[in-house]
Amino acid sequence: MKLSFVLVSPARAANVGAAARAIKTQGFSELIVVNSQAHREEEATWVACGAEDILTNIREVASLEELREEFELMVATTARERGSPRHYLSPAELGEQLSHQQEQLKRTAIVFGCEASGLSNADLAICDLLSYVPLATEYPSLNLAQAVMVYSYALGQALACADGNLGLKDAQSPLPQLSALKQKAATLLERVDAADDAKLSLWLNESLSRLSDRDAKMAHQLLGDILKKLT
């Protein structure tokens, strides 16, 4: 599995530089910036301090949606919303989950919002899972660079314990990819005339995104058998 870190509309060059430094210290290499030129400012290079190569190789895209087809799994980092039906994973829980998904996932993106307002509802909807950092108090909250450090450390440690490669290598696996599993589920919803049920689709997508490699393989078989019966 290869992990990429995505910053959506970062405003401060110092935060981008610090994020680059954070991911490099944990063995990661890809930083993607959405709709921002902050990383081109000199301050970003000053703060990166040893991670200038990460800044030089930053990928720029205009919108988060452009990345959707690249990644089997996209995880949005956000504040936990009380009363929300969505499931929120802590960095430790996310690391544990990813350590059991390495065969089915080739590429995973961890997505961070801008400093002032975080991720928009539209960007949250693009992502498969939500994650948050549990805090002892609501304020002060972590800034962007601090959040990137927390996730890069937690995920780096979890993946290193699982396979020793810090999640840097693409998985070479006979298992179908998560995207294929989601497509089977979408086809099944269409067959039973439930494709327009937004809540069901969201729940199903989120649940499939949390399956371990073993459970994903079983789900592929089960959905395949059901679809055959409906043909």
TrEMBL record:
State which Enzyme Commission number(s) the record gives: 2.1.1.200
Which is a GO BP term held by this UniProt record? tRNA nucleoside ribose methylation
Q: Which SUPFAM superfamilies match?
A: alpha/beta knot
Q: InterPro entries in the record, alphabetically? A: Alpha/beta_knot_MTases, RNA_MeTrfase_TrmJ/LasT, SpoU_MeTrfase, tRNA_m1G_MTases_N
Entry keywords, A to Z: Cytoplasm, Methyltransferase, S-adenosyl-L-methionine, Transferase, tRNA processing
> What GO MF annotations does this protein's record show?
RNA binding; tRNA (cytidine(32)/uridine(32)-2'-O)-methyltransferase activity
- GO CC, any one term: cytosol
Task: Please write the reaction equations for the catalytic activity of this protein.
Answer: cytidine(32) in tRNA + S-adenosyl-L-methionine = 2'-O-methylcytidine(32) in tRNA + S-adenosyl-L-homocysteine + H(+); uridine(32) in tRNA + S-adenosyl-L-methionine = 2'-O-methyluridine(32) in tRNA + S-adenosyl-L-homocysteine + H(+)
Q: Where in the cell is it found?
A: Cytoplasm
Per UniProt, residues of the tRNA/rRNA methyltransferase SpoU type domain are: 3-153
Q: Does the keyword Transferase apply?
A: yes
Which family does the entry's similarity section mention?
Answer: Belongs to the class IV-like SAM-binding methyltransferase superfamily. RNA methyltransferase TrmH family.
Q: What does this protein do?
A: Catalyzes the formation of 2'O-methylated cytidine (Cm32) or 2'O-methylated uridine (Um32) at position 32 in tRNA.
How is this protein organized at the quaternary level?
A: Homodimer.
Q: What is this protein called?
A: tRNA (cytidine/uridine-2'-O-)-methyltransferase TrmJ
Task: Please tell me the species this chain comes from.
Answer: Shewanella chilikensis
Tell me the lineage of the source organism: Bacteria, Pseudomonadati, Pseudomonadota, Gammaproteobacteria, Alteromonadales
